[in-house]
Amino acid sequence: MRSPKDGETAACWTMGPDRRLKFLAWALGGVWLFLVLRAAQVQLVQHARWDHEALLTQSRRQAISAHRGEIRTADGGVLARSVANWSLAVDPSRVTDPAALTMVLDSLGLVNATDFGRCLEEHAESRFAWVSRDILSEATIDVLLRRFPALSVRTEDKRLYPMGRAGGTIAGLVGRDQTALGGLETVYDAVLRGRDGAEVLLSDATAPAFQGFERTVVREPESGADIETTIHARIQEIVLGRMEAGVARAGAARGLCVVTRPATGEILAMVQVPSADPADPQTWNGPNLCVRPVTDSFEPGSSFKLVAFAASAEAGLLDPDEPINCYGGKRPCPGGRPITDHEPYGVLKTWEVMAHSSNIGTGVLAERVGAERFYRMEKSLGFGEATGIPLPGEGVGRVAEPAQWSARSLITMAFGQEVSVTAMQMAMAYGAVANGGNLMRPLLVRAVRNADGSPRDTIQPELVRPVLRLDAARELRDLFRRVVTDGTGKKAEIERLRPAGKTSTAQKFIREEGAYSTRRYVASFVGFAPYDEPKVLCLVLLDEPTSSIYGGNVAAPIFQEIVSDIWPFIAGEEAPPEERPVVWKQRELDARRPVPAVDGIAPALAGRIVREAGFRPRLLGAGVRVMQTEPPSGEMLLPGSVVTLRAGTPGDSGFVASAMPDVRGLPLRDALLRVHSAGGGARTQGGGWVVSQVPDPGAPLEPGALCLLTLGPDSSRAYMEFLDSERRTSWAVAAGNSPAEPPR
C-alpha cells in the first residue's frame, strides 16, 4: 500500500474558502437559533418570573394612608380633621445651587439653614430627604417647584385642629409620624385610623419612587370612623377665654374648669390653662397633653364638706336650723394641732356652718354621722374610683379605709384633708346633688359614625348608682344656695339664674416638709344653676393664686362669668325644636352644598375658602382678584366638585368689581382678612365676633371703600343682647320714638 506524499497530506487537512464560509454560517445560525430559543424561553416560558424581577427593581410597594376620622363637637364644630396637603422633599443629588435653595427655604420659614445644609450632606446617597411636612400653600409650592427642579411634593393627610388651644387637650394630637398623643386621639386611635390601602409605584433610575410614572392601587384604603363628642364648641371657647383671663387676674400658676349637664353627665366643656397648642409643637409636653381635670389629684378642701352634709341628710340627721357649737374658732383635736376656722365662730346654725364654711362645725357633723356612714358616702359619691371617662391616664385619687384612719382623720377628712380627688370626680359628685341624687358616669363621646355618616355606636347617659334620696338632695341644694346668698360664695351670684355651690380654699400638702403650706393654696368653686332645677354645673379651680387665696374671691367670679355667658346655649336646648341651635347631623355623601361667594377676593384666600367649603379650586389667569367663578356662587354642587376661579386685575377687560363678602359670625381676624382681600378697608365697633356689617353681603365694594363691622364679645349672651337692642331700635323708629326710649 502506497504512503501519501507530503502535498497530499496538506491538501487533506487544509479547508478551502467555501468550506470555511459554510462552517461560519452554520456557527452563526447555531448562535442565532440559541438566542431565539432563549428569547422564547424568557418571553414565553419564564415571562412571569422575569416580569416579577422587573417589578422588584423598577417599583416598590407602599401604603396608602387611610383618611383619619374627624372628632366633632355636639353643635357642629370640629375638634380634629385631616386634610390632604403637600409635603415637600428634595433630591440632594439634583441640587445645583445649595446656597440659593437654602436661602429661599430659610426665608420662607421652612428650614433652618444650618440643619438643612447638614441634611443635604447626610442624604446625598439616598437621594431623598424631607424638607417640610407642615401645611403648605399652593403659592409657595408653585414658586418652589418652578425654580428648583430638585424639589418635589407628595400629597399626605395632615391633621388640623380648628379650635386650637380650646380643643387641643381634649382631642389630643397626632404627630407627623401619625402617632396619637393624648386625648381622644389616643383612646379612639384604632377607630379613627381606619385601614391603610396599598399601591405599587413604578419609576426609572432618575427619579425617586414617589415621583414614579405609574401607580397601581392594589388595595383601596378604608376611611376611619368619626367621633361625635358632647363638647359644645362655643361653650368651650367661652370657658377658655374666661379661664385665661381669670388665671391671669388671680396670678395663679394654672387653672382648670369642667362644665357638665348634671341630669345626663354630659361634658359640655373641659379646659385647662395652660394647655397644648396644636399649632406650636413646643407646647406638646407631658403636662400640657395630660387632661388635668381627669388625671390630676388634689386635696379638695371645703368642697369635700359635701360628704359630711350628704351623709347627714341621707341618714335623716340634718336639721338646717339646728345650732352647732364651733368653739370660738379653735377646737382641740387628738393627734395634732387644734382645728381652726378662718373666723372665730361661736354657735352657728347648720345652714350657717355650710354657708360660712366652718371646719369645726363640719367636723361635729361628721362625728355625729360616724366613720362607717361617712366612708360609705365617700365611696357612693364616686371618690376613690375611676369615673370611666374615655380619656387616658385617669386618676382615682385617694380615699383610705376606716381601718387606716388616725384618731383625727374623720374630722380632718370632713373638711377635705387626708383625701385626694380629681376635678371630674368632684363635678360628678356635685352633679348627683343637682340632679336629685343620681351619680352619673361622665359622658364625653356620644356617637361613633362610619365614614358615610351611618351610626356605628351610640352611647347613652349611664347611671352609676343612686346616692341620695330626692328630699335629701333637695335639702343639700337649699344649703348650697345659702352659700351664694349669705356665705362665702356671694361673688358667684347671678340674679336671674339663682346658682348654688360651694367655695373651697385648700392648703397644699408639701411632702418635702411633711406639713401643709401656709403660702400655697388651691382655690375652687363648684356650683350649678338654677339651684331648684339645675341645668348646668361648673367647677372652677385655680392652683396657687396670688391675688387672693380664697375660692370665694378668685374662683367664684369666674364661675359667675362663665355661667352667665353660656346660659343662652343651655337655655336654647330647652327651646322648641325649630328654635334650637343647629347641631351636627348625620352626613350624607350626596348632600349638595352651595358654591361660596369669592368674587373680588384674592385668589389664594378664595382657594382656601373654596377648599373649606368642600370643593376643589382650579385657578385660571393671573391677577390680584377673582373676577368670576364657574359654576357661579350659590349653585349647589356635590362635595369634591371642581370650582374654577378666574383671576384678573382692575382695568382688564372683563374684570368684575369686588363685592362685599359675608363676614357675619366670623372672628375679627378672619373678617378683616376677607374685607381687605376684597379691596376694602374696615372700621370696627366692639370686640369679638362680627354680628353685623355695612354694606350688606354681595353689595358692590369700590377699592378702598370703608366697611363698618360691629362685633360682640365671644359669648352668645352678648350676641342676644345685640339683637335685642337692634329690635328695640327698630321698634322705636317704627313708633316715631327716639332709639334711646324703647317702648315698655
Categorize the overall geometry. Answer: elongated
Reported CATH architecture of the largest domain: 3-Layer(aba) Sandwich
Instruction: Return the average pLDDT rounded to an integer.
Output: 82
**Which runs of at least 5 residues are low in confidence (pLDDT < 50)?**
9-13, 208-213, 575-590, 714-723, 725-744
CATH topology of the largest domain: Beta-lactamase
- The CATH superfamily of the largest domain is DD-peptidase/beta-lactamase superfamily
What is the structural class?
A: alpha+beta
**Number of contiguous helices:** 24
Total strands: the figure is 33
Q: How many domains make up the 3D coordinates?
A: 3
Strand content: 15-25%
Radius of gyration: 37 Å
First-residue to last-residue Cα separation: 156 Å
- CATH classification class of the largest domain: Alpha Beta
Largest sheet: 7 strands, mixed
Helix content: 25-40%
In short:
This protein is of the alpha+beta class and 744 residues long.
Notes on the structure:
39% of the residues are buried. Residues 9-13, 208-213, 575-590, 714-723 and 725-744 have low confidence and may be disordered. The chain is elongated. It folds into 3 domains: 62-225, Penicillin-binding protein 2a (Domain 2), CATH 3.90.1310.10; 233-277 and 293-579, 3-Layer(aba) Sandwich (Beta-lactamase), CATH 3.40.710.10; 590-656, Trypsin Inhibitor V, Chain A. The protein contains 24 helices and 33 strands. Strands 2, 3, 4, 5, 10, 20 and 21 form a 7-stranded mixed beta sheet that branches. A 5-stranded antiparallel beta sheet has the order 12-11-25-24-23, with helices on both faces. Strands 1-8-9 form a 3-stranded antiparallel beta sheet. The protein is an alpha+beta fold. The N and C termini lie far apart (156 Å).
